[in-house]
Amino acid sequence: MPIKPLEPKQLQELAELCPEGDFLTDEATRTKLSRDYYWYSPRLTPLLDPIIADAVIAVRSIETLKKVVAYAAKEGIPLTPRGAGTGNYGQAAPVLGGLLLDMRPLTEPLKIDRETGRLRATAGVRCQTMEEFARPFGWELPMYPSTWVKSTIGGFLAGGSAGIGSIKNGVLRDGKTVTAMTILDSSQPPQLHRITGADCLNYLHAYGVNGFIVDVELQLVPKLPWEQVVLSSPDAMKLFAFAHSLARDHAEKLRLLNFQQWPIPSFFIPLKKHYTEGESIIQLEVTTEYLSLILDKAESEGISVKLHLPHKEPRRAPMLSDFVQNHSTLWAKKEDPSYTYLSAKIDFQNWESAVRRLMDWKDPVFALRADFNQTDGKPSVAAGPIFKAPDTETLQKGERALQEMGIYFYDVHSPFLDRRGMETMHSSKIRLKSVRDPSRIFGIGKLAHEAPDLGSEMSKSW
Questions:
Q1: What's the half-sphere exposure (Cβ side, CA atoms, 13 Å) at 370?
Q2: Domains and CATH numbers, the chain
């Protein structure tokens, strides 16, 4: 489907479908909401910056959403859903123009079953709102992104994969978090579908290409008091080994386990005063019951305690979750805009050689960030080496370095769902597109064959 600006008649008819003030065509709004955090990438920035939606619709009701989808299906207009836009590789970018649907206003009152811990929320509700709503009832989210203050639950499920809590409760694709969801298709007229159980997996991390998430039901977990702790050592390998042992032996007592090699901690301006030059850190959220055991274990191995933030209700800043996952890259870019990152898979059982090579590599120089999770019921580690790459050539050098080290990595510098390294993982989601998007208007350009010109440009820097 070629990029074709909407005609004045189409813009007028769409405006008439929306409540006053919810159909936005001013350039500033269209530009701002057409972008997410793809500017982390020197490959994506020049390719996606020029792309701007023809109009933005603030979605406040399912009724309006149905009307807009019906009109777009009739006219063949691409639709791109957007939450808070905190994704890192163009999940919310309208790759082929068309309409951008801002789902943040879709915030109906939360509903919770106090006995079972089932929580139902519409797509625009923020993750922080859900966590703070659940805790007084004795429950908490099984996981949430580091951007939880801004992120919507619909955006997190459509574009994310793991979060704070994944060390204890698993990642999204494990299938334990989402118990049901409502999906809107692009048939004429559009239909709502209630999806339950394992079938929900087909819509998680799918960018909305095979249906728009309208509401979700999550299985919460019993709330616990969480102590925030930062541990430190000048010996990065020793500290990583300590983090690895915690993930292996004590994951059920943790909500967060993150490793940051120096100099990454020096970028964390609000907490920098607590840290020692040249020392890497581990960031933990650990149950109050288990805190003393962690501290005793650290002391016995010569690992320092740099910071302890006792549990409080309600939970308030500073939150260590603001300094993990790709928040680390954000802090690095505030220090030097040329910093970017890669996403690598390290074998949890045989980690030592890969971690040592990453830490010792000289061209480019990597600083290792690692987030520990549970995947398929087993401990896992997601590595995000950070390095300076002011241009695509240096980014390529970093990718080639991982290949030379024999470290598998995912292409996080692509807006495509079927990007390199992810084709098999998302194949069932892509097959479902023809069923839930018969009008072929959802997330057009998120699959490589739908945007061949963009794919061709990207391939030049692979």
A1: 30
A2: 8-105+437-450 (3.30.43.10), 111-222 (3.30.465.10), 226-410 (3.40.462.40)
